[in-house]
Fold this protein.
Amino acid sequence: MSLDQVREFVEKNKEEYLETLFTLLRQKSISAQNIGMEETSAMLLKMLEDIGMDSRLIETDGHPVVYGEMMKEDNDFTLLIYGHYDVQPADPIEEWNSPPFEPTIRNGKIYCRGVGDNKGQLMAQILALKSYQEVIGDLPVNIKFVFEGEEESGSPNLAKFVSEYRDLLKADLVYTSDGPMHESGAPFVLLGVRGMLYVELNAKGSDWDNHSGNKGNIAPNPAWQLVDLLGTMKDDDGNILIEGFYDDLQKPTANEEELISTLPYDAEQVADQIGYKGFDMTREEYYRKLTLEPTLNIAGFHSGYGGDGAKTIIPSTAKVKMDMRLVIDQDPDDILEKFIKHVNKHAPGVEVVSHGSMKPSRTSPDLEVVKVVKEAVKEAYHQEPVLQPSLGGSLPDYVWTQILGVPSVIVPYANSDEANHSPNENLDVENFYKGIVCTCSVIRSLGE
């Protein structure tokens, strides 16, 4: 098969494909608010049936999984493609330049909530199967689709689903298109994600706020208690001081270390992206810290008065929210236990509340199937992809590598400035079409 044939077919059907995507985009599917989830899963199911897939809805304790398969006994390889049909809330609505659930094209970009994360990328995969069959005929590999409806809510039921349906989901590789491409514009082949643990610290002093003059040095200040506690968690070099935090950290392989030394890097571009002119990391330091090392981050700190002018009080409560990005083989449950132990040692009156976690995941770059995918992506984009050992953020990738027990790769199709989770989320129109071609290229290469 020539990919040029697929490109020509996609070009001829651009308007039809775009309208198919727009139909899905117009249907709200906000999992956190349970808006439109039933309607969207039913719509997606019909779309899979229309391209000839044996499809069904599989109920979970939350929103259903849309499952589809196209199987042929002669095929030796099975590819499981994962995506999600739920989206983030559109708030704040007033910051959108066009209605958040009415897809609008401006300057070559489609603006709509969910277009990049993940409906546009999901639809590229569905339309790839349609295009492949129309241009070539039978697929050279078995295909299984798993589209969940709770990724934006932390995928609370995905691990249980994969455990219960392990036999149904049996595959040789899991393929995900989610998130943005590399900031250089090059395509990504990502081999894992960092895990996450999110916690909240609550400190209490008096039963109410007190006058900071009349009761200064008398009433305890819980904000200082949390400041002092946070100071025990890191040293001046940024090393995390929680006992045992690094115990299970898997050292990067020589191949992974070599991999990050070859990745594209522009320090000035990174400085502009994060809005910090003092940024001065080397390439190796940047990628090591971003993909291979854990973090301990203060996400929010609130206590006392934060309004205009002055209000002289000793606050009665203080709260800190923290997230930890974890790398292979750190276990969020184990880290939480060590975190609580550290808090109890240094500030026994402070309450620790866990707000959820996700395990890290990583696939070896040495696997032959990774090399096949990398070459397929290169052929689709006419550009060498960036092969990176891990994404800085978190996805439920561990359900595939640790529960299903198969390798997993992530190949994003969205532009690097997609603004997912933000107002004016967008997807380059050409990225949508290229994602269709890329999926076809991967399917063809895996079948050879």
User: Anything to note?
Assistant: The chain has 13 helices and 19 strands.
